[in-house]
Amino acid sequence: MRTQFTTLTSEECDALLDQLLSPQSPGHTPRVHHRNYTMALLMLDAGCRVGELVKLEQHQLWFAHCAVGALTIEKNQAKNKHERTIPLSNRLGDAIKEMHEHWWNGDHDHGARYAFYSTWCARPLTVRQVQRIITSAGKLSIGRDIHPHLLRHTFGTRLMSKTSMRTVQELLGHKRLSSTQIYTHPSGEDKRKAIDALNSAD
Question: Which residues are catalytic?
Answer without folding.
Answer: 49, 79, 149, 152, 174, 183
